[in-house]
């Protein structure tokens, strides 16, 4: 059993800001790997000679700025995605909780996956635009920016193009959830101790292993989704997709027939290499932002450490602590006034 609790010493807005800052920073730093991953999945000309050659080819043909194609829309998508995911997760979580407020690991993973699906579907158009910006040539772009991409897609291909491949998000959630569950169920065997005794490093490695295994299982669905997002009759070379297809099932069929089943995992190397730095940077950035907020709220003595402020009840919420301090401040002020009056 696992208890799901958030740090009540932070406000909801502080939690969202910490998550957004951590997400933007980690996404920006690992953007080159994400660009290579998407290009590999779509199958553009950059990726014909393997992972390392893709890096060189992107740099030679488009310059170093090309490693951050689509990063702005990806970062802009993080905040609404986090808000929707958090709200959905809280609602779905109650369906799997028992009377004491506890939830199994399987329930937590399913709730997280369902919340992720809801958030992904709502912010899906941004994902399509990100893919289109990544696959275009930066030196001779088809789209001038985010808003131009949105207008052009809706005008020339129709609004529903912004949801092309969205059904694969639902299908891919099944192997993803199963993969994450299998890893978490066997973590105690890996570490040789119960999961509730895991330290921060063990939890971080466990999260990376679960993410890596789960993403590997669901990667073919993500690959087909990227191909469907990229393919367009109005783009040069139909968006650079290495196969031509008429729908989701036909895309699977054509990839396996022409390129081989292993091509469903093109871009996986970049994706797996991204996991450790991405989650590592996200975790460390989130923890730093959290310390800043806890210091501002008065729970710790410095944003550089987790040393607790002396005499502060850590079970209080930020508003409760502020009200308590205000009460004692007013009380001390009144006692000082009465003391002055008694002297005179």
UniProtKB/TrEMBL annotation:
Per its UniProt entry, which superkingdom is the organism in?
A: Eukaryota
Q: InterPro entries attached here?
A: MCP, MCP_dom_sf, MCP_transmembrane
Q: Name one GO biological process term.
A: transmembrane transport
Q: How does it sit in the membrane?
A: Multi-pass membrane protein
UniProt KW keywords: Membrane, Mitochondrion, Mitochondrion inner membrane, Repeat, Transmembrane, Transmembrane helix, Transport
> What PROSITE patterns does the record point to?
SOLCAR
Q: Where are the transmembrane segments?
A: 103-124, 161-184, 204-221
| Main location, first listed in the record | mitochondrion
* Assigned GO CC terms: mitochondrial inner membrane
Give me the Solcar repeat coordinates as residue ranges.
10-95, 103-190, 198-292
Enumerate the subcellular locations listed in this protein's record, separating them with semicolons: Mitochondrion inner membrane
Regarding protein family, the annotation reads: Belongs to the mitochondrial carrier (TC 2.A.29) family.
> What name has this protein been given in UniProt?
Solute carrier family 25 member 43
Q: Which organism is it from?
A: Polypterus senegalus
């Amino acid at each position: 059993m696992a208890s799901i609790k958030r740090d009540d010493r932070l406000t909801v807005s502080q939690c969202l800001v910490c998550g957004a800052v951590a997400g933007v920073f980690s996404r920006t730093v690992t953007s080159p790997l994400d660009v290579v991953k998407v290009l590999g999945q779509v199958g553009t000309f950059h990726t014909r000679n393997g992972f390392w050659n893709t890096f060189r080819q992107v740099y030679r043909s488009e310059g170093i700025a090309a490693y951050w194609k689509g990063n702005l829309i990806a970062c802009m998508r993080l905040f609404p995605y986090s808000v929707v995911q958090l709200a959905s997760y809280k609602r779905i979580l109650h369906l799997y909780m028992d009377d004491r407020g506890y939830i199994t690991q399987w329930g937590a993973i399913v709730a997280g996956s369902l919340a992720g699906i809801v958030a992904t579907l709502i912010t899906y158009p941004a994902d399509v635009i990100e893919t289109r910006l990544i696959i275009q040539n930066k030196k001779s772009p088809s789209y001038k920016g985010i808003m131009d991409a949105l207008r052009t897609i809706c005008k020339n291909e129709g609004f529903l193009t912004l949801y092309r491949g969205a059904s694969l998000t639902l299908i891919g959630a099944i192997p993803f959830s199963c993969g994450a569950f299998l890893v978490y169920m066997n973590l105690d065997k890996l570490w040789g101790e119960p999961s509730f005794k895991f330290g921060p490093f063990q939890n971080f490695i466990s999260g990376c292993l679960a993410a890596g295994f789960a993403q590997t299982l669901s990667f073919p669905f993500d690959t087909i989704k990227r191909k469907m997002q990229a393919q367009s009759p109005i783009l040069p070379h139909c968006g650079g997709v290495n196969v031509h297809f008429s729908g989701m099932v036909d895309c699977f069929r054509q990839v396996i027939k022409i390129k081989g089943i292993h091509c469903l995992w093109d871009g996986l190397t970049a994706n797996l290499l991204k996991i450790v730095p991405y989650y590592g940077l996200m975790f460390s950035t989130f923890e730093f932002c959290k310390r800043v907020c806890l210091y501002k709220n008065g729970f710790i003595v410095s944003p550089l450490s987790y040393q607790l402020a002396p005499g502060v009840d850590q079970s209080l919420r930020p508003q409760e602590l502020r009200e308590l301090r205000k009460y004692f401040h007013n009380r001390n002020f009144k006692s000082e006034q009465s003391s002055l009056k008694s002297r005179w």
